[in-house]
């Protein structure tokens, strides 16, 4: 077969070579660019061996997960004469909405393609938690980006509250990247007045409180400096969750309730959570200059401990006084404590 080249001359198309590496090597997905592949046969063999080991681990993992789930766990009748514990393969396939043959091949470690949606369906059928779902995706060689839309709610060890209480008189709390406050100690409760200015769902959220509390009762004296930083940290975290219902609803509600938030949000400023000086007010102890320090929590993604450390001796004395006060001072009108508007 002949064709015309760019200047009209007759040119012969190259014959397809039977031994072309792009046709011979089933693991080569680069098409005719295989001639430029500088990897050695040993490198390609190592890649194939790695994929084979991963598929073997995937098969073992799926079998073990299937054995842990009983028919009663997923609302199926127990049936008779079950020779193995847990669900049958056809039951997993039925729950996940996939073919029995396809699931069997997946569990046997055969080289088949699996999409994010199908793997998530299998994960739901096997009742996998967040860590197990991520492990499943890694073994299947599929990007785990889809997992971001289905995060597990953080599970905090009971000892976390013991640690927070031991940090008194320093105010300390566990927060997530949406500024939801999940746990806190008594000094923190007194500092912010956590029973007020809650979200529509009843959750105490520090950025919600800072935005919506009136100037006379706002926990920040340097609110004009604090809020832009907080919104920038929130937007930085939002970048990982664009399109997720919980995050979109959170931003929409803040925008609906606060014109200032809309203005700050539109600036498109982003920032990490770093230690910086915050000036708080309290209706009984007065102004407190505190540095917020952040400590990550291994095993609890996007959740951290924030501890407020006094800037100087006077702030330390006021923090110690704060720790002795009953919580809820902010529930009373500001004029009772002389904190005028």
Can you put this structure into words, describing what you see?
Helix 3 crosses helix 4 and helix 3 (89-96) crosses helix 5 (116-125). With 341 residues, this protein is α+β, with helices and mostly antiparallel strands. Mean pLDDT is 79; it is low at 1-35 and 331-341. It has a five-stranded antiparallel beta sheet with strand order 4-3-7-6-5, sandwiched between helices. A two-stranded antiparallel ribbon has the order 1-2. The chain starts with a strand and ends in a 17-residue tail after the last helix. It has helices spanning 21-24, 41-68, 89-96, 100-107, 116-125, 130-140, 159-166, 186-192, 206-212, 223-238, 245-257, 259-266, 313-324; strands at 2-4, 10-12, 172-176, 181-184, 277-282, 286-296, 303-310. Helices cover 41% and strands 12% of the residues. The chain is built from 13 helices and seven strands.
Which features characterize this protein?
5-stranded antiparallel beta sheet; two-stranded antiparallel ribbon; 13 helices; 7 strands; disordered N terminus
């Amino acid at each position: 077969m002949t064709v015309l080249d760019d200047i009209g001359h007759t040119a012969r198309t190259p014959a397809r070579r039977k031994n072309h590496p792009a046709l011979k090597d089933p693991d080569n997905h680069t098409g005719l660019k295989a001639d430029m592949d500088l990897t050695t046969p040993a490198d390609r063999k190592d890649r194939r061996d790695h994929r084979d080991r991963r598929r073997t681990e995937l098969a073992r993992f799926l079998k073990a997960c299937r054995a842990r789930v009983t028919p009663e766990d997923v609302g199926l009748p127990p049936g008779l004469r079950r020779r193995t514990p847990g669900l049958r393969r056809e039951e997993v396939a039925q729950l996940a909405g996939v073919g029995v043959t396809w699931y069997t091949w997946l569990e046997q470690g055969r080289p088949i393609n699996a999409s994010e949606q199908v793997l998530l369906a299998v994960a739901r059928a096997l009742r996998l938690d967040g860590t197990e779902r991520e492990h499943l995706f890694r073994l299947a060689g599929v990007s785990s980006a889809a997992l971001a839309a289905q995060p597990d709610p953080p599970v905090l060890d009971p000892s976390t509250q013991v640690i927070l209480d031991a940090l008194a008189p320093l105010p300390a709390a566990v927060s997530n990247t949406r500024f939801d406050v999940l746990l806190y100690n008594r000094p923190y409760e007194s500092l912010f007045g956590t029973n007020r200015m809650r979200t529509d769902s009843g959750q105490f959220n520090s950025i919600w409180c800072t935005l919506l509390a009136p100037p006379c009762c706002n926990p920040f004296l340097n609110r004009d400096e604090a809020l832009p930083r907080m919104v920038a940290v929130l937007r930085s975290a939002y970048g990982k969750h664009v399109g997720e219902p919980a995050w979109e609803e959170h931003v929409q509600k803040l925008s609906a309730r606060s014109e200032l938030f809309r203005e700050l949000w539109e600036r498109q400023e982003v920032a990490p959570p770093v230690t910086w000086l915050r000036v708080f007010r309290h209706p009984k102890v007065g102004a407190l200059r505190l540095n917020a320090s952040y400590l990550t929590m291994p095993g609890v993604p996007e959740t951290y401990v924030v501890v407020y450390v006094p800037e100087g001796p006077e702030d330390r004395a006021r923090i110690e006084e704060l720790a002795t006060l009953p919580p809820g001072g902010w529930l009373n009108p500001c004029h009772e404590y002389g904190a005028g508007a």
